Amino acid sequence: MGRFTLARLGYAVVTGLVVAGALAAPAAAAAGGTVQGDFTTIAGSPIADAYVTAYTADDEWLAWAFTDGQGHYRFTGLPAGGIKLQFDFNNLQQWSPGRRTSADATVYQLASGGTVTVNEQQPATGTIAGHFTGSPSYFNVTAYGVDAPAAVGGYTTEDGNWSIDVFPGTYRVAFTWEGAKQWAVGSVSEADAAVYTVAVGQTTTVDDSKLPTGTMAGRLTKADGSPLADTWLDLHRGPDMVGGAVTDADGHYTFGEVIAGDGYTVSFYVDGGPNQWIPSVRSQQQATRFTVVAGEATTADDSLITPGTLHGRLLGEDGAAKAGYSADILTDDQDNGMNYSATTGSDGSWSADGIEPGDYRVAFRTADWQRTQWAYGKGGEADATVIKVGSGGDVTVDDTWLTGGSVVVNAVDATTGAPVSNFCVWVSAGDSSGDGCSTGSSVTVDDLSSGVYDLYVTPDSSSYYLSSQSQSVTVTAKQATTATVTLVLGGRVSFTAKDHASGAAVEQACGIFRELGHGGLGDGYGNCTDEAGNVTSVSIAPGTYEMFAVAPDGYGHQWVGTTGGTGDQKAAARIKVKAGRTSTAPAVLLDKPGTITGVVSDAAGAPLADVNVAFSAWGDAGPGWDTDTDEHGVYTIDKLGPYGWPLLFGSRNYPREWSGHNGNRFQAEPVPVVAGGSTTYNFTPRTTASLKGKVTAPVPNWRIHAFNAVTGDQMGTFDAYLAGPGGAYEMPLAGDQKVKVDWSYYQDGGPSVRGWYKDAADIDAATKVAIPAQGAKKLNLKLG
Q1: Is 77 exposed, middle or buried (0-12, 13-18, 19+ CB in 10 A)?
Q2: What keywords were assigned to this record (predicted)?
Q3: Does the chain have fewer CB atoms within 10 Å around its N or its C terminus?
Q4: How far is Cα of residue 495 from the mean position of the Cα atoms in its chain?
Q5: pLDDT tens track for 200-255
Q6: Which contacts (CB < 8 Å, 24+ apart) does range 91-97 have?
């Protein structure tokens, strides 16, 4: 195999090499490829002893090597595929060719058994230098990149002078020695540090003086008082680690000089175990904040944590043992703590050892996990007693299992008030739940903790009645609460599925029923046809629907028309569902599938990765009926019937647009699909309009959506965490459409709250908002 090199920065050649970014399939993984080259200064001098690392295109580590005296490096046995290279000399890190970040690096394509030569030059540097007054000799200086990641270190001379070569850019400078970390100029916080600009061939001067210091030291012991030797400790100030030390044979340690101030915490660990923070706690949040006074010594002693024990007994109100119940010991510090569990024995007793010191709550659960009680005698975690366990502690938690209450659920017809029989009930409240079924018109759910429950009723699968909406019911211990649930009578739809060409029955064709103006398809679907091609749907609310047929393998999806399939919901057959009756839909005549493929690119022609492409507008539940473009901007959607289909494009940087550049699916440009063939449809997204304003909400976390007013498709979303000052928002949208806006938020300890603009209960009653073809429409929203 012949090969040659080009001596210019970052060029790579190889027999069979595909230039990164070209539209080509990635090489199959295989061993045996070679990557080699020379690393030189900007003047062409070799750089010896530089650290070179090879990564995959996805930044997974592959191998490392050092340059020799001539600046040469070589990797062998690398897998075929995309390769990135990082070069590091004296902490000056760069990605080939001469880039500061991995995201900007070139991906070199390595063929199986091939060789890629990458000659790399170190870009020109500048210098950041200065004098540090009052410091120990040879302390560390680090320049941290601001505009690009970097951490370039050096040391001072005996007289406090220092100098570091860095790439051009902006930097903050930190000085570290013993237990001290100081940022230039005269700051203990990176956020308050000055930012310095370094230019090629220029020296930027940074002088500073040591801040006042004290010292910090202490002793660590085991639980029996003997010394805890050879143990590493870390000194923290806020989230930053500023120093370290190791205990001697007698357990003593010292961080040496520490900058005077407050907010210091100390952690250590033994034999790979969990961190312990002084004094004898497991999380920094619980640790003591030490204050260091200038010129004085601060002492921080501690003893190694000894696990404790929790035990107790669970009895009924009649004194009978509650055997087989779980005792769950849950930490109040879920970020750093641990949870434990035990099971009650035949006498109701339980015990758990190895408990780390901390604050806990204890929950007792029935064997079927349908009822939970928190110590002591509480129905919810928020009301539970906090149990404190100290190092080596032995804590008893006895509790009495309280007699529960019950709910008697009666179901009646929403129109006539007549009893409805044959249904099941589910009640749920946090950790407790219960259920029951009956062939009659009443169901009783027993042994429920006191509290407010969500109640649901589900009729038998043979019933025309619809499942109920959630309603609240309050349960009181030792009492029966009666709840009446009204059920709405729905209807069903029967249909058959056939091969359009042969007329043969088709199995596993499934129906989704949608109403015009109420958005796209959900993630799931209903009942599917049997071997004879027949099926009847579950009960749905009375109304007029269109049916989408989810096709089995070998066929294409379709909206069901009167005499065949279509890709347009407007052209689908109207199916009228009546209460208490089964309607017959037109036959589902399935055709062979085709494919749509294409490239999504920006206005300059560059391919766009991770653009979502779909034939239905999915909502917050997540994508459905869709795909994403790959790194070359290519997408493919298959299993479509041979009809014209609208396509929806959207990404983080662009609003959702239907094919033809509009927000109304019914006005989209249809993309024709050919049975057994592939249609190419390329697309360039654009941002033309937006909805903007301010949101006033009773809680910090909220979300708003914009739905096309004609189709009900979700066309935009905005979350509170993206908002500016005062709740300012701007939601990009396809221009020249009318939308309806909803909002939602979660109440603390309560259900979610949802509403529609303007003061409407649902999308049908919501006010339309006109989005201009170009520019922004202003709309302020008050939630709640």
Answers
A1: exposed
A2: Signal
A3: N
A4: 41
A5: 999 999 999 999 999 999 999 998 999 999 999 999 999 999 999 999 999 999 99
A6: 91/151, 91/152, 91/153, 92/122, 92/125, 92/152, 92/165, 92/166, 92/167, 93/149, 93/150, 94/120, 94/122, 94/123, 94/167, 96/10, 96/120, 97/9, 97/10, 97/11
**The tokens of 522 are what?**
């959900």
Give the Cα-Cα-Cα angle 301, 305, 310 (nearest 5 degrees).
Answer: 145
CA dist 535 and 522 (Å) reads 20
**Distance from C-alpha of 594 to C-alpha of 598, rounded to nearest angstrom:** 14
* Contact predicate 597/564, CB 8 Å: no
pTM exceeding the 0.70 threshold for the entire prediction: no
For the chain, domains (ranges, CATH) are: 12-121 (2.60.40.10), 126-209 (2.60.40.1120), 213-303 (2.60.40.1120), 308-401 (2.60.40.1120), 405-487 (2.60.40.1120), 492-590 (2.60.40.1120), 594-680 (2.60.40.1120), 689-782 (2.60.40.1120)
Neighbour tally for 83: CB within 10 Å? 26
Residue 564 is given by DSSP the state S
C-alpha distances (whole Å) from 507 to each of 523, 527, 729 are: 21, 11, 49
- DSSP letter string over 261-283? EEEEEEEE-STT---EETTTBSS
* CA dist., res. 615 & res. 627, Å (int): 10
Q: Residues 6 or more apart from 653 whose CB is under 8 A from it?
A: none
